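A reminder before we start the practical. When you read a complex entry, don't treat the lines as separate problems. The point of joint prediction is that each chain is placed relative to the others, so the output describes one connected object in space. Small molecules and nucleic acid strands, if listed, are placed in the same frame. In the example below there are two entries. Take a minute to note the order of the lines before looking further.
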Amino acid sequence: MDFDETIPAGAMWSMRVPRQRVIRLTAIEAGANVSALFYNASNPLDRLNVPDTLKALHTAKLTRGHVLMSDMGNAMVSMIEDSLGWHDPLGGHSTAAQIEAAFGARPYQEALNNFHRNARDNFLIELSKHGLGIRDLVANVNLFSKVTCDLDGRLQWVPDHCPAGAFVELRTEIDVIVVLANCPHPMHTGGEYPSSAVRINIFECPPREADDYCFNFRPECSRAIKLARRLFI
Amino acid sequence: MSTLNYKESSLRRESASYSQIIPAGEGWIYRINAGETLRIVDLCGNQAADTFFFNADDLSERYSAQDTLREQSALYLTTGARLVSNLCRTMLAITADTCGRHDTIGGACAAESNMVRYDLGKRFMHNCRDTFLLQLAISGLPLTKRDLAHNINFFMNVPVTPEGGLKFDDGVSEPGKYVEMVAAMNIHCLISNCPQLNNPCNGYNPTPIEVLIWQP
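Here is the predicted structure of the whole assembly.
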């Protein structure tokens, strides 16, 4: 059965997604940012490792072909489609203090469900639903966002990177707990709190290998996918 | 290559209250109190010192690479950098650096990541994460793999291009280069002197480092 849900701006979402599913995320409006974390559902100590992913792929951005890897060398999700060409693995996630500095204070007492939420609090809430907590909160990726680095190492968040309709598809290589926070990028320069809802669709996807773009993207990708399959022998 | 930022320390080694040589492949966990200065010396050059920090008074607060990068809006660590925790608080500040650039996006090598990066047969080579896990296990502290996030690689060179490429480069360090930092809180410092033989991060020849501590 296909899954179809819309995550409002500022909201969070988590779910245990079996392997061999495609998670398709679509920015309904321009300016989306989805902070994302991934855990091996059968052993959450085995979790997304951004440094391991980046050094295996020789990249400081994420795009089609890339395989997000766990710290036990397992492929977690593969980016099989991507309309943007750049998703940020460097910037981390927003906190209450950062959101207030960038967008002003808007507590629930005043704004009810239009209050300004942040990715840190959202992550902690969703993680706790899976028995996880602050010790499990490691480096995340930011889908739909771009942060560049100049030759001296200065980091710059790129505004207007994500147009309406931008999408990315992640194929699960193992059973994963997916934790998402649809909150502004922590380097967002501020102004109006973004209003971009993000649609999430999940559907089945048969295993592929010989002609699979991600499996063949780099030898590191095929080795991580092979290691992931060892979990199911 | 971008500009490197060199700053020498005024501290003399004779006045250090503690010093320890850490051979390649060995680990070290040690308490450093607020106000104390830690120096790490690359004795022979081109040696990665994988380093991580916990708040000694609240072990759930630990070094965060992403928060550190974002708070300084810069990818490399050198003099002036604040090493920031997962609560976005300053744990230590780098006060001197004769190497000029250090990495914090490369993480630590591990048995499993070596399998992915090089060959499935590399599983049994010694690696930094195993050193970290052993040090935590014998430390007497209630810390496990769960508490291990992403570390700093002092003396390691991992340049990123404006197009988003990343590579492990020959080191920019040389024999005797050092980095020095002052603790802003009581911390446990965890170091693995990297045994990696599969890439140039140790010049294919892992060598000892030295740690020194000065009282305020």
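Discuss with your neighbour: Residues 219-230 of chain A form the longest helix (12 residues). What might explain this?
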